[in-house]
Amino acid sequence: MTSYLLILLFLCLALGAALWWRQRQSAHPQAGLTHQERTFQAALQTALDTLSLPLRPFAKVKIADVLAPGRGRQRQHWLAQYAELKEVTFDFVLCDAKSLTIQAAIALDHGQRGTRTRDQLIDTACQATGLPLLRFPAQRHYPQEPLQAALTDALPAIKAHAQTQRERAHAPASTPESVPMTNTSSPRAVEHLSTEEFAERLSLHPRALLAMLARLGYLEWDDNGELQLTGKGRRKGAVQWDDERAKRQFQWSVRDRHRATG
Protein backbone atom coordinates (compact mmCIF):
# COMPACT_ATOMS: atom_id res chain seq x y z
CA MET A 1 0.00 0.00 0.00
CA THR A 2 2.84 2.35 0.86
CA SER A 3 4.46 1.75 -2.55
CA TYR A 4 1.25 2.75 -4.34
CA LEU A 5 1.09 5.96 -2.32
CA LEU A 6 4.70 6.75 -3.19
CA ILE A 7 4.02 6.16 -6.88
CA LEU A 8 0.93 8.38 -6.73
CA LEU A 9 2.89 11.09 -4.94
CA PHE A 10 5.64 10.90 -7.56
CA LEU A 11 3.13 11.22 -10.41
CA CYS A 12 1.52 14.24 -8.74
CA LEU A 13 4.89 15.92 -8.30
CA ALA A 14 5.83 15.19 -11.92
CA LEU A 15 2.53 16.61 -13.17
CA GLY A 16 2.96 19.71 -11.01
CA ALA A 17 6.49 20.23 -12.31
CA ALA A 18 5.32 19.86 -15.92
CA LEU A 19 2.55 22.41 -15.42
CA TRP A 20 4.95 24.82 -13.74
CA TRP A 21 7.45 24.51 -16.58
CA ARG A 22 4.75 25.08 -19.21
CA GLN A 23 3.52 28.19 -17.42
CA ARG A 24 7.08 29.45 -17.07
CA GLN A 25 7.75 28.96 -20.77
CA SER A 26 4.56 30.83 -21.68
CA ALA A 27 5.40 33.73 -19.39
CA HIS A 28 9.01 33.91 -20.60
CA PRO A 29 9.13 33.25 -24.38
CA GLN A 30 12.86 34.02 -24.44
CA ALA A 31 13.63 31.21 -21.96
CA GLY A 32 14.64 28.90 -24.83
CA LEU A 33 17.69 31.01 -25.69
CA THR A 34 21.15 29.69 -24.99
CA HIS A 35 23.55 31.56 -22.73
CA GLN A 36 25.43 32.88 -25.78
CA GLU A 37 22.18 34.08 -27.38
CA ARG A 38 21.02 35.83 -24.20
CA THR A 39 24.43 37.47 -23.88
CA PHE A 40 24.26 38.63 -27.50
CA GLN A 41 20.70 39.91 -27.04
CA ALA A 42 21.77 42.08 -24.11
CA ALA A 43 24.83 43.38 -25.98
CA LEU A 44 22.73 44.07 -29.09
CA GLN A 45 20.15 46.07 -27.13
CA THR A 46 22.94 48.11 -25.53
CA ALA A 47 24.43 48.83 -28.97
CA LEU A 48 21.06 49.91 -30.38
CA ASP A 49 20.48 52.21 -27.41
CA THR A 50 23.97 53.69 -27.62
CA LEU A 51 23.60 54.40 -31.34
CA SER A 52 20.02 55.69 -30.80
CA LEU A 53 18.73 53.39 -33.53
CA PRO A 54 14.90 53.06 -33.59
CA LEU A 55 15.08 49.28 -33.89
CA ARG A 56 13.85 46.46 -31.64
CA PRO A 57 15.37 42.95 -31.62
CA PHE A 58 13.21 39.81 -31.57
CA ALA A 59 14.63 36.32 -31.11
CA LYS A 60 13.96 33.03 -32.89
CA VAL A 61 11.70 34.13 -35.75
CA LYS A 62 11.06 31.57 -38.47
CA ILE A 63 12.78 32.39 -41.76
CA ALA A 64 9.69 31.29 -43.70
CA ASP A 65 7.55 33.74 -41.72
CA VAL A 66 9.90 36.56 -42.69
CA LEU A 67 10.85 35.84 -46.30
CA ALA A 68 8.00 33.78 -47.76
CA PRO A 69 5.19 35.73 -49.48
CA GLY A 70 2.02 36.04 -47.44
CA ARG A 71 -0.23 33.75 -49.39
CA GLY A 72 -1.02 32.07 -52.71
CA ARG A 73 1.14 30.31 -55.27
CA GLN A 74 4.14 32.53 -54.67
CA ARG A 75 4.33 31.37 -51.04
CA GLN A 76 3.95 27.72 -52.08
CA HIS A 77 6.71 28.18 -54.66
CA TRP A 78 9.00 29.74 -52.03
CA LEU A 79 8.36 26.94 -49.54
CA ALA A 80 9.13 24.37 -52.23
CA GLN A 81 12.31 26.15 -53.32
CA TYR A 82 13.56 26.65 -49.77
CA ALA A 83 12.06 23.55 -48.16
CA GLU A 84 15.18 23.10 -46.01
CA LEU A 85 14.51 26.46 -44.35
CA LYS A 86 10.85 25.82 -43.50
CA GLU A 87 11.49 25.25 -39.77
CA VAL A 88 14.79 27.15 -39.50
CA THR A 89 14.82 30.41 -37.53
CA PHE A 90 16.78 33.62 -37.66
CA ASP A 91 18.59 34.02 -34.35
CA PHE A 92 17.32 37.61 -34.22
CA VAL A 93 15.46 40.08 -36.42
CA LEU A 94 15.61 43.86 -36.13
CA CYS A 95 12.23 45.58 -36.43
CA ASP A 96 11.27 49.22 -36.75
CA ALA A 97 10.39 50.31 -33.21
CA LYS A 98 7.06 51.86 -34.28
CA SER A 99 5.74 49.91 -37.27
CA LEU A 100 7.41 46.56 -36.32
CA THR A 101 8.43 46.12 -39.96
CA ILE A 102 11.40 43.76 -40.16
CA GLN A 103 14.45 45.69 -41.34
CA ALA A 104 17.29 43.18 -40.96
CA ALA A 105 18.10 39.68 -39.77
CA ILE A 106 20.95 38.45 -37.59
CA ALA A 107 22.60 35.04 -37.57
CA LEU A 108 25.10 33.79 -35.00
CA ASP A 109 27.79 31.54 -36.45
CA HIS A 110 28.37 28.63 -34.07
CA GLY A 111 30.99 27.06 -36.33
CA GLN A 112 29.13 23.75 -36.57
CA ARG A 113 29.91 21.31 -39.35
CA GLY A 114 27.28 20.65 -41.96
CA THR A 115 25.72 24.12 -41.73
CA ARG A 116 27.72 25.71 -44.55
CA THR A 117 25.22 24.69 -47.25
CA ARG A 118 22.31 25.91 -45.15
CA ASP A 119 24.07 29.22 -44.49
CA GLN A 120 24.56 29.67 -48.23
CA LEU A 121 20.87 28.93 -48.79
CA ILE A 122 19.91 31.51 -46.15
CA ASP A 123 22.21 34.07 -47.79
CA THR A 124 20.60 33.39 -51.18
CA ALA A 125 17.07 33.72 -49.77
CA CYS A 126 17.90 37.02 -48.07
CA GLN A 127 19.59 38.41 -51.17
CA ALA A 128 16.56 37.46 -53.28
CA THR A 129 14.27 39.54 -51.06
CA GLY A 130 16.75 42.31 -50.31
CA LEU A 131 16.70 41.65 -46.56
CA PRO A 132 20.01 42.70 -44.94
CA LEU A 133 21.61 39.80 -43.06
CA LEU A 134 24.23 40.40 -40.39
CA ARG A 135 26.42 37.52 -39.22
CA PHE A 136 28.31 37.44 -35.93
CA PRO A 137 30.45 34.67 -34.41
CA ALA A 138 28.86 33.03 -31.36
CA GLN A 139 31.03 33.70 -28.31
CA ARG A 140 30.83 34.17 -24.57
CA HIS A 141 31.35 37.93 -24.66
CA TYR A 142 30.42 40.51 -27.29
CA PRO A 143 32.49 43.72 -27.17
CA GLN A 144 30.50 46.84 -27.99
CA GLU A 145 32.95 48.40 -30.44
CA PRO A 146 32.80 45.74 -33.21
CA LEU A 147 29.07 45.23 -32.64
CA GLN A 148 28.32 48.94 -33.05
CA ALA A 149 30.64 49.14 -36.06
CA ALA A 150 28.79 46.27 -37.77
CA LEU A 151 25.42 47.92 -37.13
CA THR A 152 26.70 51.25 -38.45
CA ASP A 153 28.08 49.60 -41.61
CA ALA A 154 24.72 47.88 -42.17
CA LEU A 155 22.66 51.08 -41.79
CA PRO A 156 22.66 52.00 -45.53
CA ALA A 157 21.34 48.56 -46.46
CA ILE A 158 18.76 48.68 -43.64
CA LYS A 159 17.55 52.10 -44.73
CA ALA A 160 17.36 51.00 -48.38
CA HIS A 161 15.33 47.94 -47.39
CA ALA A 162 12.98 50.10 -45.31
CA GLN A 163 12.46 52.47 -48.24
CA THR A 164 11.66 49.54 -50.55
CA GLN A 165 9.11 48.21 -48.08
CA ARG A 166 7.43 51.61 -47.81
CA GLU A 167 7.21 51.90 -51.59
CA ARG A 168 5.69 48.43 -51.89
CA ALA A 169 3.24 49.05 -49.07
CA HIS A 170 1.91 52.22 -50.69
CA ALA A 171 1.89 51.07 -54.31
CA PRO A 172 -1.71 51.21 -55.66
CA ALA A 173 -1.57 47.66 -57.00
CA SER A 174 -0.73 46.21 -53.59
CA THR A 175 -3.55 47.88 -51.64
CA PRO A 176 -5.82 45.16 -50.16
CA GLU A 177 -9.29 45.28 -51.71
CA SER A 178 -10.99 44.83 -48.33
CA VAL A 179 -9.51 48.03 -46.89
CA PRO A 180 -12.00 50.88 -47.28
CA MET A 181 -10.42 53.64 -49.37
CA THR A 182 -11.09 57.34 -49.18
CA ASN A 183 -10.45 60.01 -51.77
CA THR A 184 -6.72 59.86 -52.53
CA SER A 185 -6.59 63.65 -52.61
CA SER A 186 -7.47 63.90 -48.91
CA PRO A 187 -5.17 62.79 -46.10
CA ARG A 188 -6.07 59.76 -44.01
CA ALA A 189 -4.40 59.17 -40.67
CA VAL A 190 -5.48 55.60 -39.82
CA GLU A 191 -6.20 52.39 -41.70
CA HIS A 192 -8.20 49.51 -40.18
CA LEU A 193 -6.61 46.20 -41.16
CA SER A 194 -7.39 42.59 -40.40
CA THR A 195 -4.63 40.44 -38.95
CA GLU A 196 -3.94 38.94 -42.39
CA GLU A 197 -3.76 42.35 -44.06
CA PHE A 198 -1.55 43.75 -41.30
CA ALA A 199 0.76 40.72 -41.55
CA GLU A 200 0.98 41.08 -45.33
CA ARG A 201 1.83 44.76 -44.94
CA LEU A 202 4.76 43.78 -42.69
CA SER A 203 5.75 40.75 -44.82
CA LEU A 204 5.03 38.41 -41.91
CA HIS A 205 3.00 35.26 -41.44
CA PRO A 206 -0.18 36.04 -39.42
CA ARG A 207 0.90 33.69 -36.61
CA ALA A 208 4.27 35.42 -36.39
CA LEU A 209 2.54 38.80 -36.20
CA LEU A 210 0.23 37.65 -33.39
CA ALA A 211 3.19 36.24 -31.45
CA MET A 212 5.05 39.52 -31.86
CA LEU A 213 2.03 41.57 -30.71
CA ALA A 214 1.69 39.29 -27.68
CA ARG A 215 5.34 39.89 -26.75
CA LEU A 216 4.73 43.64 -27.04
CA GLY A 217 1.77 43.47 -24.67
CA TYR A 218 -1.07 44.10 -27.14
CA LEU A 219 -2.37 40.53 -26.77
CA GLU A 220 -2.54 38.01 -23.95
CA TRP A 221 -3.80 34.46 -23.39
CA ASP A 222 -7.20 34.08 -21.72
CA ASP A 223 -8.30 31.21 -19.45
CA ASN A 224 -9.41 29.20 -22.50
CA GLY A 225 -6.00 29.38 -24.14
CA GLU A 226 -7.08 31.94 -26.77
CA LEU A 227 -5.51 35.27 -27.56
CA GLN A 228 -7.39 38.37 -26.49
CA LEU A 229 -6.69 42.10 -26.56
CA THR A 230 -5.12 43.73 -23.57
CA GLY A 231 -5.99 47.20 -22.35
CA LYS A 232 -2.90 48.43 -24.18
CA GLY A 233 -4.18 46.92 -27.43
CA ARG A 234 -7.63 48.50 -27.04
CA ARG A 235 -6.11 51.91 -26.33
CA LYS A 236 -4.30 51.63 -29.66
CA GLY A 237 -7.66 51.27 -31.42
CA ALA A 238 -7.69 47.49 -31.93
CA VAL A 239 -10.98 45.57 -31.66
CA GLN A 240 -11.84 41.87 -31.40
CA TRP A 241 -14.88 39.68 -32.01
CA ASP A 242 -15.81 36.04 -32.54
CA ASP A 243 -17.06 35.14 -36.03
CA GLU A 244 -19.77 32.62 -36.92
CA ARG A 245 -17.27 29.78 -36.46
CA ALA A 246 -16.49 31.02 -32.92
CA LYS A 247 -13.01 31.98 -34.15
CA ARG A 248 -11.39 35.02 -32.57
CA GLN A 249 -10.81 37.85 -35.04
CA PHE A 250 -8.96 41.16 -34.64
CA GLN A 251 -8.89 44.47 -36.45
CA TRP A 252 -5.88 46.77 -36.09
CA SER A 253 -5.71 50.53 -36.39
CA VAL A 254 -2.53 51.25 -38.33
CA ARG A 255 -1.33 54.81 -38.67
CA ASP A 256 -0.45 55.85 -42.22
CA ARG A 257 2.67 57.93 -41.94
CA HIS A 258 2.72 58.73 -45.68
CA ARG A 259 -0.32 60.96 -46.07
CA ALA A 260 -1.31 62.43 -49.36
CA THR A 261 -0.64 66.11 -49.61
CA GLY A 262 -2.77 66.98 -52.62
Question: What this model shows, in words?
Answer:
A hairpin with a 5-residue loop joins strand 8 (239-242) and strand 9 (248-255). This protein has 9 helices and 9 strands. It has a 4-stranded mixed sheet with strand order 1-2-3-4, sandwiched between helices. A 3-stranded antiparallel sheet has the order 5-9-8, with helices on one face. It has a two-stranded antiparallel ribbon with strand order 6-7. It is of the alpha+beta class. Residues 23-31, 173-188 and 258-262 have low confidence and may be disordered. The longest helix has 26 residues, at 2-27.
Secondary structure blueprint with pairings:
Layout: H1 2-27, H2 35-51, E1 55-62, H3 63-67, H4 72-81, E2 89-96, E3 102-109, H5 116-129, E4 133-137, H6 144-169, E5 190-194, H7 195-201, H8 206-215, E6 219-221, E7 227-229, H9 231-235, E8 239-242, E9 248-255
Parallel strand pairs: 3-4
Antiparallel strand pairs: 1-2, 2-3, 5-9, 6-7, 8-9
Helix pairs in contact: 2-6, 7-8
Strand order of the largest sheet: 1-2-3-4
User: Oligomeric status of the shown chains?
Assistant: single chain
Count of helix runs: 9
- Total domains: 2
Radius of gyration, in angstroms, nearest whole number? 21 Å
pLDDT under 50 segments (min length 5)?
23-31, 173-188, 258-262
Query: What's the rounded overall pLDDT mean?
Result: 78
Biggest beta sheet attributes:
4 strands, mixed
Task: Please supply descriptive tags for the structure shown above.
262 residues; alpha+beta; three-stranded antiparallel β-sheet; 9 helices; 20% strand; globular; disordered C terminus
